[in-house]
Amino acid sequence: SDGVEATVVVKNPCDFPIEFYSLDFDEQYLEEEKILRMVRSESQKTFWMPPRTAGETLPPEVLEYYEAQKRLKVQQAEIKAMAEAEAEAKAMGKAPPANQKNVTFYPEPMVKMIGNPITQALRRHLGIDPIAERRKAQQWQRRGIVVIVHGAPRAGKTAIAAGLCYYYDALYLSIDTVVKEAIAND
Asked: What parts of the sequence cross the membrane (predicted)?
């Protein structure tokens, strides 16, 4: 059909705000559903979330996790595109382009920090402080080691370092990045 137009009048006799929406037309709802589908694990059909007031967004832990996952996917796509371009150049017998940029891969350590972001949001809402619990546990742990990955150009040092960081949940430092930041900060 061509559609039907109607006028809706909403009155709120209460002292608190009331939020109403149509799931078909609410852009915020559709975006939040996409985020929650990505955040929850496959085994989680039902999960608890902290209550929200009218118009409030998802908890910051969930939004940070989503942004980290988006950045990670972009970085992975860049690495894949760079590897494909390099393979194509080798297949054609040409040297890789001189203007090809190096992609620095930073695994997101917050992804595996305490559990999933929904659990983090619930802990914050309930007032449970996982940081204090972690500090107690870290007092009994050793500090760890430093691994330096060194090799010839285009030998795969960055990929190996990123894999080690991901596997051991460690931090990644690039010498180039450290030097550039030191120069920029005097």
From this structure: none
Total domains in the chain come to 2
110 and 132 share a domain? yes
Asked if 129 and 51 sit in the same domain, the reply is: yes
Give the chain as a DSSP string: -------------SSS------TTT-HHHHHHHHHHHHHS-TT-SS-------TT--S-HHHHHHHHHHHHHHHHHHHHHHHHHHHHHHHHTT-PPPTTPPPPPP---GGGGSSS-HHHHHHHHHHT--HHHHHHHHHTTS----------STTSSHHHHHHHHHHHHT-----HHHHHHHHHHT-
Looking at the fold, whether 22 and 49 belong to one and the same domain comes out as yes
Residue 99 lies in a domain: no
The pLDDT tens digits of the residues spanning 28-50 come to 888 888 888 887 765 567 778 88
The model's pLDDT over 80-121, given as tens digits with 9 standing for 90+, comes to 888 888 888 778 876 555 555 555 555 544 444 446 787 778
